[in-house]
Amino acid sequence: MKSTPALFQSESRRVYPGSGALNHALEKPTRFLFLWSIRLLVFSLLFLLLPVPKIRAALGEMTVAVTRDEIQFRWNPEIQGSLVISLLPLATNQMTRDAAEPQEVPGVEVWRGDASALKAVIPRFDGTSDRMFAKYRLRVASAKESKEIPQHVTDFSGLERRHQSLGSTKSKKGITCLLDVADGLAVGCAQLNENIVIEGLLDLQSKDPKASFVYEGRTIGLRQGGVAALDSHLKTAYKNGQRVTGILLNNVRADTPASSPLVHPLTDPERVPIGPSAFNTATEEGMFYYRAILHWLVERYTRPDAAYGTLSGLVIGNEMQSHWSWYHLGNVEPKIVIREYAAALRVADLVARSIHADFRIYVSLEHHWTMSPSEDPTKAFPGLEALDGIRRISAMGGNFPWCLAFHPYPENLLKPEFWKDRSAPLRFDAPRITFQNLEVLPAFLKQPEYLFDGKTRSIALTEQGFNCPDGENGEVLQAAAYAFGWKKVQAIPEIESFLYHRHVDHPHEYGLHCGMRAHDGSSNVNGVGKERAIWRVFKSAGTDQEDGACAFALPIIGRSDWSNLVSTKFEPPRRQILEEGRVFYDFVQKRDEALNENIQNLARKLVGPVDEVQRVGLLEHPMPKGLGRLSFKVEIPAETEGDAFLVFEALLNHEKSSGAAFQVEVDGREVFSRILRGGESFPSEISLNAYRGREVWISWNVDALKDPAYDWATWVAPRVVVRAGVRR
Fold it and tell me: pTM of the full predicted structure?
């Protein structure tokens, strides 16, 4: 093997600490911070010297209010000159599967006047169309265009809205998928969930539907059976004094017509893996039906007389960061999922707060926090990335009081002992948030940028359970997990509900047995079987018998009492490596496409401490003799797409190895060569600009150097990355 080639000498990488701190370099941090100080000083001087435009992109320049008959606008008194307000539809994307980027829709001028008026008014209704469901852009009349971020209605104080209670949160004890009402009352269940699938309510096929409602001048069909079932469930819960949170879902099946207004243009019905899919926020027709069914639901189930029962709020979709399975939008980048989901969230807020002042709208996330549920970023991404994206979009367009529906399952859904979760440390950048580090969630949301009107957003735990493992101790472990989880939730005031999943085992729930009762073994998927130990603990929760019923769990979880369950001290964030630029080709994802020569073992390998976000690598274990070669055929992006780099880290991932050689070739030309000893690593970044627009073979080669023992040769995060405006 040759020594490291000269073209490889540049090895700088950029890493980011969590929670918005400044970027740090891997090496020479003192010099780095000094350089950043100089940059900040220069930026500050430039800001002071440059003229400030009369209309800025800062938030709060214009507020939009709604009354029964008007849309009202107010703006900052510093703004001067002649102004124009334009209306833009909420569905501005008009996306197709071939063009995932939104198309710009021109605004319609609705008002023109002098800024000195400080306010403007337009009619709320344009015919039957409600202008509350629009966004508005302010610009100086003399300017050809405005970079101002369009604003939504955020002030509903001019409306006569409902204010009565929608259910008590005095008790947080709840159940999902309740199959026996009497059994739920027997254990003192105070809160429930209700899955509401919109195609089970809307009848868009019948020419003359037997039930319907009128919205914005259009008659919309309803399915009588679906309405009757929902009424029955909610009326029963109301009669029993139970608070109900709705889970709003849009199920798409293989036989669902792609032309249906309920199907998002990026959702291909033939590829939907499970059913739950994105709401169609991309077309005018899709947006109309979405807000129509929202209006019907909120109006019907917040009536003061509770004639049909009551809903306290709606969770929008399900686990949106795991979108491939649970909010299906096709293979798309996270920014697209976040944008479309934020639009669905915004419309739900507009509908809800225009009818009832306290009806809650929730973001749905599962327990992956800074790690992704999938190695494929077009199928899933970290929950923190989702939440921060939603926060940014909602703040820019006019902040609103979304809440959080979170699912803090244990790190391994089959193992109930969450107190052993190693991926859930007490850090804001924890890979997962489970019951082990649940206090991280409200603490994170108390950061100023996440507050609404100075208050922490409410958290509802709307789906999480503990598997009952096989064996004689299975029921005891499951019950201990619930006891510990319940005690912890009681100690966190920001959490309004703990809806345990589930009441009875589902026989087809991926091998999980989370039920407080077992399934009865019949062909009926809803067969109610015997009580488990958790049933008795659940029944005692929130009563005078609670401590006695939960005491058995203390030695199991390694505690002597229930004091100091919630920590107020958190570890500082760890530094995380994030890629600069667009990942064009991921060799780990494409490993099945490689030509494999003289390799003893090839496997996907997670690298790094389990309490950090581990990086994904290719473990390429060499044979005792000869060069192991793993070759990929890759088309390097053209020059117009940016500068291309091959980025990776060579790692000999076992300290007992006597050493191995690593080599990378591009079209037979060696571009990297290094001998590493056990436990050593070497990061690298190699320019591929010489190959732009060409199809090349990239080979990852390893040599055991005669002794293959413990030669866990690993290529960590090997990727082709494209960056704009980079010249090296």
Answer: 0.88
Q: How many CB atoms lie within 10 A of CB 29?
A: 10
Query: How do beta strands 125-126 and 129-130 pair?
Result: antiparallel
Q: What domains, with CATH codes, occur in the chain?
A: 14-49 (no CATH), 62-158 (2.60.40), 408-570 (no CATH), 579-723 (2.60.120.260)
Find the helix packing angle between 474-490 and 533-540, rounded to 10°.
Answer: 20
Alpha helices in 491-566 (DSSP H): 533-540, 546-550, 553-557
Among 301, 391, 270, which Cα is nearest to 341's?
A: 391
The beta strand positions in 580-680, using DSSP E, are: 582-586, 595-597, 599-607, 615-622, 627-635, 643-652, 660-666, 669-676
Angle at 18 between CA 16 and CA 20, to 5 degrees: 85
CA distances from 590 to 362, 579, 615, 633, 720 (A): 36, 18, 16, 10, 12
Q: Which residue has the tokens 């090839």?
A: 602
3-state SS record for 207-239: CCCCEEEEECCEEEEECHHHHHHHHHHHHHHHH
Query: What is the rounded distance in angstroms from the CA atom of residue 1 to the CA atom of residue 716?
Result: 21
Sign of CA dihedral 80, 81, 82, 86: negative
Phi, psi of 87 (to 5 degrees): -95, 130
Q: What is the pLDDT of residues 116-152, one digit of tens each?
A: 999 999 999 999 999 999 999 999 998 877 778 999 9
Each residue of 394-403: pLDDT tens digit? 999 999 999 9
